[in-house]
Design brief:
By secondary structure, the chain is α/β, with parallel strands linked by helices. The chain has a single domain, classed as Rossmann fold. The protein is built from five helices and 14 strands. The strands form two sheets. Strands 1, 2, 3, 4, 5, 8, 9, 10, 11, 12, 13 and 14 form a twelve-stranded mixed β-sheet that branches. The protein has a two-stranded antiparallel ribbon with strand order 6-7. Strand 4 and strand 5 form a beta hairpin. Helix 2 crosses helix 5. One of its GO terms (biological process) is purine ribonucleoside salvage. Belongs to the PNP/MTAP phosphorylase family. MTAP subfamily. It holds the Pfam family PNP_UDP_1. InterPro entries: MTAP, Nucleoside_phosphorylase_d, Nucleoside_phosphorylase_sf. This is Probable S-methyl-5'-thioinosine phosphorylase.
């Protein structure tokens, strides 16, 4: 176990923020990153000369944190403490548009329906962040190319609706949200907007684990979600590691200018 200051100067190319049941095989060592918002443990890995870290979103020692209790600010701040500018988020979602179970979705927009989460780094000032294109097009293209190359079922684009959790949504809520959203999950926000506040590149790959409430047979269960994630774990890892291997040396997107719009008042 190392502390973040011991790896200063190390060049990490990307951070993978893992969701439920996500892990990288062969990763053993860890880095402890102290942030103003709490301590985060990151796990370094190497892929063909490219270096990254995996941060388990739900992990806090031996506890599994529910979505509304995750320390999103600490996680995203830890990414920048390690000198990382690119983030890929791994999410599980329910479909409101009939996506095949086990397929992948690369969202290109998001709707925040959370209520009680700390959603900014700037409690003492107003910072307006550009959310016109919230997900990094360069990272999304990398994910799409990896999915196409492996002939894996996926949907390019869609609105991710993020709810508070930890409960699943009601039938009435899904009827309402399905008029403007495509998939529903509990971890996309405020993670995305926090990354934008720090001008990071951020993209999400979502695994469709179930039909949203009222759109399938019977009730949604946590075991159903975990079972699908386990079945698709190998495919997901192949896609992610392919993206890491093929990362361009330079960022060629506008993510680094997300706050360059007369943002601070």
């Amino acid at each position: 176990m190392r502390r973040a200051e011991e790896v200063q100067g190390s060049c990490f190319d990307i951070a993978l923020i893992g969701g439920v049941n996500f892990s990288l095989p062969g990763v053993t060592g860890s880095i402890v990153v102290e942030t103003p918002f709490g301590v985060v443990r990151a796990y370094p890995f190497d892929v063909h000369g490219r270096r990254g870290v995996m941060i388990p979103r739900h992990a806090d020692g031996q506890k599994h944190l529910p979505p509304h209790m995750i320390n999103y600010r600490a996680i995203i701040w830890a990414v920048t403490e390690l000198g990382i500018e690119r983030v890929i988020s791994v999410n599980s979602v329910g479909t409101m548009r009939g996506h095949p179970i086990g397929s992948f979705v690369l969202p290109d927009d998001i709707l925040d329906m959370t209520r009680s989460r700390k959603s900014t780094f700037h409690d003492d000032m107003t910072v307006h962040v550009d959310m016109t294109d919230p997900y990094c097009p360069q990272l999304r293209n990398g994910l799409m190319n990896a999915l196409v190359g492996r002939e894996l079922g996926f949907s390019d684009g869609g609105v991710y609706v993020c709810t508070e959790g930890p409960r699943f949504e009601s039938r009435a809520e899904i009827r309402m949200m399905s008029t403007f959203g495509d998939v529903v999950g509990m971890t996309g926000m405020p993670e995305l907007v926090l990354a934008r506040e720090l001008n990071l590149c951020y993209a999400s790959i979502c695994t469709v684990t179930n039909n949203a409430c009222g759109l399938g047979d019977g009730k949604i269960t946590a075991s159903e979600v975990v079972r699908t994630l386990r079945e698709k774990q190998e495919n997901l890892l192949e896609v992610l590691l392919s993206v890491v291997r093929s990362l361009p040396e330079k960022r060629e997107c506008n993510c680094m200018h997300a706050t360059d719009i007369d943002a601070c008042l």
